[in-house]
Amino acid sequence: MTNDSKELSKMDKFLEKGKEHHRAEFIAAVIVNIILYYIANNLLNWHISFIAPTFADVLWIVNYFLLAAIIVNLIFIFYHPNWLRNLLQAVVDVLFIITAYTFFMVFPFLVGEGLAFALKILIALMIVVSVISLIIHIVRFVLGLIYRD
C-alpha cells in the first residue's frame, strides 16, 4: 500500500465513506423527536414542579430545533449521501448550540442552587461538544466536496 493510498484510506475513514446508515436509525430519530416535541409543548400544562414558567421563553427555539431534526431525519430516510448528511448535521448543530445557550441564559428550572450549578455546567459542556461536532461536520462537508468520487 502506497503512502497516497494510506492517506486516501484515512480520508475515506474520516469522511465516513462506505459507512452504512440504515433507514431504521432515521425513522427512530423522527419518532423520538416527535415525542420530544409533544412533551416540550405540554410541559407547562402538566404543572411539573421543577419546570419554571420561563420555559415558555425557550419553547420557540426548542420547537425550531426539534422540527429541524425531524425534517432532516425525514430527508435522510430517503436520501443521505455523506455531503448532505454533514451539511444538514451542521445546521442541526447550530440550532442545538442556540437552544442550549438559550437554556443556559434563561434556565427555566426550579431546582436547588447546587443542582442548578451542575445543570449549567452540563449545558456548557453540551455547547462545547456541539461546537466540536459543528466543526467536524463542516470539515467533513468541505473535504467531502473536494475528495468526492
Can you tell me about this structure?
With 149 residues, the chain is mainly α. It has one domain (21-146). Helices cover 77% and strands 0% of the residues. It contains five helices and no strands. The chain has helices at 3-14, 23-42, 56-78, 82-106, 113-146. The mean pLDDT is 92.
SS element count, helices: 5
Reported for the largest beta sheet, the result is: none
Structural domain count: 1
Derived structural class: mainly alpha
Strand content: under 5%
How would you classify the quaternary structure?
single chain
Please give the number of β-strands: 0
Helix content: over 70%
What is the CA–CA distance across the termini?
Answer: 20 Å
Mean pLDDT: 92
Q: Categorize the overall geometry.
A: globular
Q: Helices and strands, in N-to-C order?
A: HHHHH
Poorly predicted regions are none
Rg over CA atoms: 19 Å
Helix and strand layout, with pairings?
Blueprint: H1 3-14, H2 23-42, H3 56-78, H4 82-106, H5 113-146
